[in-house]
Every structure is written in structure tokens, then in C-alpha cells.
Amino acid sequence: MRLLLSALLVTLPGLALATPAEEAAAARIGYYKLVGLEMSGLSAMAKGEAPYDAEKAQAHAADLLALSGYSHDDTFAPGTSNADLPGKTRALPAIWENLAAFQEKGMAYRDAVVALNTVAGTGAEALAPAVGKLGGTCKACHDDYRAKDF
Ligand code: HEC
Prior knowledge:
The protein is mostly helical and 150 residues long. It has a single domain (18-145), classed as Up-down Bundle (Four Helix Bundle (Hemerythrin (Met), subunit A)), CATH 1.20.120. The chain contains six helices and no strands.
């Protein structure tokens, strides 16, 4: 049985290629893609590219709030910057050089998500500025901590 298993592992090299660091970075990117997906639904309504829908707006905001409760520690493991994993991540080493400053950007983001949740379902007029403010906190973090390209 053990022999069979090791034979299997040898014949399936494609299955176990990613290192733990690469898996952490991939999970982190997946997390942010979820954030991006919810945000794009909100932005479209805020810009008038999609009709305002109170239920949808509130659902996007609630998803962002749920995501913001996720603890990032594992996905920001040391050794997972774009200097460690070229081509696999856009996370700049600056994140780990001053984690407290990076976390402050995260707290500003979370505050904006909480504020958005109080108004998202109340009308397009209230949604637009709250989404704008939230978008500013995404940009503030990306400007300092995300590389332009992979
Ligand atoms: C506290 C910092 C921070 C905040 C706040 C933040 N991001 Fe990011 N985001 C990052 C970092 C760092 C990466 C790069 C992750 C990687 O490549 O490993 C990233 C990656 C992404 C990605 C992944 C795909 C890509 O193009 O790299 C998307 C989409 C994204 N962010 C959207 C958003 C949106 C939308 C918001 C706000 C609603 C936001 N982010 C808020 C730091 C942040």
C-alpha cells in the first residue's frame, strides 16, 4: 500500500508543486479578488453604470464586511513578498518592513466598510460617496504596498 502510494505521488508531479509560501500568496490574491468582485458591483452602481438596487448594494457591502473579519496573518506569512516570489505576487516587501503601518491602512479600509454598511441600502445618493471613500482606502494601500505588475 505504501509502495503504491509513493508510486502514485511520483507519477503525479503536477499535484504538489506549489510551496507553502506560494500557496499563501495565491490564497491572498484570491482573497483580494473576492474583495474586488464585491467592489466592482458597488462601483458600477455608484458610477451609474448599473441601476441602483438597495438589496444588491447591501449584499455587496455585507460581503465586504464579512471578508474584513478574516484574519490575514496566514496569507501575509513572512517570505511571501514579490522579492521572495517573483512573478507570483504583487505584495511589496515594505509590508513586512513596517507591519503596523500596513495594518493602519487595513484599519482605515475596515472603517470605510463599516460606514458603507450603514448606508448601502438607503439610496444611490448615500451609496456613491461611501463607495468613493472606500475606494480611496483601497488605493491608499495599493499605492504603498502593491507593485504595479506581477
Ligand atoms: C491594507 C492594504 C490593502 C487594502 C486596504 C486593499 N488592498 Fe487590494 N491588495 C493589497 C495587496 C498587498 C495586494 C497584492 C496581493 C498579492 O499580489 O499578493 C492586493 C491585491 C488586490 C487585488 C488582486 C488582483 C491584483 O490585481 O493584484 C485586487 C482585485 C484588489 N487588491 C482589490 C482591492 C479593492 C477593490 C480594495 C478596496 C475595496 C482593496 N483591494 C483594498 C492590499 C490592499
